[in-house]
Design brief:
The structure is a single chain. The chain has 2 domains: 3-131, Rossmann fold (3-Layer(aba) Sandwich); 145-256, RNA polymerase II/Efflux pump adaptor protein, barrel-sandwich hybrid domain (OB fold (Dihydrolipoamide Acetyltransferase, E2P)). 31% of the residues lie in helices and 28% in strands. The protein is built from 9 helices and 15 strands. The strands form 3 sheets. A 7-stranded antiparallel β-sheet has the order 10-13-14-8-7-6-15. Strands 2-1-3-4-5 form a 5-stranded parallel β-sheet, sandwiched between helices. A 3-stranded antiparallel β-sheet has the order 9-11-12.
Amino acid sequence: MLERTKRKILVVDDEITVCKSIRQAILSDEYSVDMALSGEEALKKDEEKSYDLVITDLMMPGISGLDLLREIKQSRPGVIIIMVTGYPTIKTAVESVKMGAFDYLPKPFTPADLRGLVGRAFKKAVSEEKAEGEVPEPRIPAGYYYMLGHTWLNVEGENKATVGVLHDFLKTVGIITHLELPKLNEAISQGDACGKITDQDQFTHRIWSPASGRVIEINTRLLEDFTLLRRSPYSDGFLFRIETTQLEEDLKGLLQAK
């Protein structure tokens, strides 16, 4: 692949060792990868090169990852941004997705996790380019809450809700070869992984829970027929049902379909 056709990626972290490890994990014939050790340096480099994808740590001195997200999105709304976060900042990471980040990656993560997420990000970009002029995609049903690019939540009573995967997420993964769901009575928190999809390229894609609660029902039909996820993403292809524990607070971090 010629240099001029490579996707341009910028890795931002105030620790040089982290920058280097992320760069090493994703560097390939398809991507050129630069590094920046601060938000200030990242803004300067992005102004010069207009990167296709920015991978940034959430917590940095000076210009934070959220500040960087706001600044870049304001000038270039179409840029893809992935946030890297530690467990204590999961709520902030969820907020970053609401603000327009493509996704976030909790620490610790493996090189395979990172490569799968980068691949999914660029698949989404390609699918959006191809979608222009095509038949409209499924719509999120009115009233459903959702975590942008990941999962939806349908509140079905005072403390019960159904969780499923957005069609936007599904179109960025390949043919599904394995699906991992939570167990009955398992406690899950908003922003944590509530499932994993493995595709034919052997990429594993973690699915973030849109709300906190206790799992009270699993859609076992999915384990027998993965195609339900794509054929009926907002109905028969749901993942599971939960008894919510902090619904009012969780809804503040979600968007609602109109």
